[in-house]
Design brief:
The chain has 334 residues and is mainly alpha-helical. The protein has one domain (2-42, 57-329). The chain has 14 helices and 2 strands; from the N terminus they run H-H-H-H-H-H-H-H-H-E-E-H-H-H-H-H. It has helices at residues 2-31, 35-44, 50-53, 58-77, 81-92, 97-121, 127-150, 153-173, 187-191, 214-231, 236-246, 251-275, 281-301, 307-329; strands at residues 195-200, 205-210. A two-stranded antiparallel sheet has the order 1-2. The N and C termini lie far apart (54 Å).
Length: 334
């Protein structure tokens, strides 16, 4: 029995790792021409001596272990890895913020792609609910990415710091409703057939659901797309509350559909960063692989650790990282 269990665990680990490595190899192929120049640039900032220039590989190695740790805490806390990745790596690693944001989108994208097929098969991600929202969010994420790349790094740091502190407040105050009551579907959701049935394993019954306040949801997802593209963060922290609390989708359907939406939104914004040369393999590859390995372990940690405890730890980390980004942008803490 132990051997079978170990084999099943190994297969479960290799599947998302394979997706992550595949995404990382794609990034490497697209961004490899810039790797040598990036290494030289980092080496040039260390002082110019031979002993210093030979240690450029230390940063990708450290990045892997940091992302591995972030992946472990991200899953129990219920947040996407990109929300933690961008402020922490951008604040404490010597990488330009544009490269960090480009890698952050790929980190969030890889995690979403790994979970997407299973969520669709389980009925927890609904295409009719996701596609109209993802269409607007994808278009606005492209605009957000172009805007973020056009802004000075100091301005982006200030905006990032303020956004991260706002996210911390939202996470601290957010409530959740397992099965929101929706009296009647509005005209938009009825026309777009935003309804469905999913099987709740906890209660062992099929649940019929529908949504309302669709115009407000479409407007909010447009804003979410801008934020996701501008800062290179997965927007799961915002997707789930809008789907669950504003539109009235069940919590499990909201979480599953959010992951599917992320795979569309982040891929749209990521191409802007790729086209501008803001994605480097030496940053993106260790980030994606480390985050996905950590997330796999985090899913198992969730079974034995209270998610509320980890959530408080993540909020504290976000407050610290957001304050750091804000003060860095203001030139107070360089």
């Amino acid at each position: 029995m132990k051997t079978a269990s170990a084999t099943g665990w190994g297969r479960g680990l290799l599947r998302p790792l394979g997706i992550g490595v595949g995404a990382a190899m794609l990034v490497a192929a697209l961004a490899m021409p810039e790797v040598a120049g990036a290494a030289d640039a980092w080496a040039g900032t260390t002082g110019g001596t031979e002993g210093q220039t030979s240690a450029w590989w230390w940063w990708p190695l450290a990045l892997f272990f940091v992302c591995f740790a972030l992946g472990i805490v991200a899953v129990p806390a219920g947040v996407g890895g990109g929300v933690l990745f961008v402020p922490i790596v951008g604040g404490f690693f010597p990488f330009h913020l544009d490269f960090v944001r480009g890698a952050g989108l790929l980190v969030a994208l890889a995690s979403a792609l790994a979970a997407g097929p299973d969520l669709l098969r389980a009925g927890l991600a609904n295409l009719r609910l996701a596609l109209p929202l993802a269409l607007l969010a994808s278009a606005s994420s492209i605009a957000g990415a172009m805007l973020g790349l056009a802004m000075p790094a100091s301005v982006v740091n200030i905006a990032l710091g303020m956004t991260i502190l706002l996210i911390s407040g939202v996470m601290l105050m957010a409530r959740k409703s397992e099965f929101p009551e929706v009296a009647a579907a509005d005209g938009f959701s009825a026309a777009l057939r935003m309804h469905g049935v999913f099987h709740d394993a906890g209660t062992d019954r099929d649940l019929h659901w529908k949504v309302h306040r669709t115009p407000q949801g479409l407007l909010l997802f447009t804003l979410i797309g801008v934020i996701a593209g501008m800062f290179g963060m997965g927007a799961g922290w915002a997707n789930v509350p809008v789907l669950n609390l504003v539109m009235g989708a069940p919590l499990k359907v909201s979480a599953g559909t959010s992951s599917f939406i992320l795979s569309l939104v982040d891929s749209s914004a990521a191409w802007v960063y790729l086209n501008r040369g803001a994605v480097l393999a030496v940053i993106a590859v260790p980030s994606v692989v480390g985050m996905m390995l950590g997330a796999k372990i985090g899913a198992r940690v969730l079974k034995v650790v209270k998610a509320s405890v980890v959530r408080k730890l993540v909020i504290a980390l976000l407050v610290f990282a957001g304050t750091r980004a804000l003060l860095k942008g203001l030139g107070v803490w360089m």
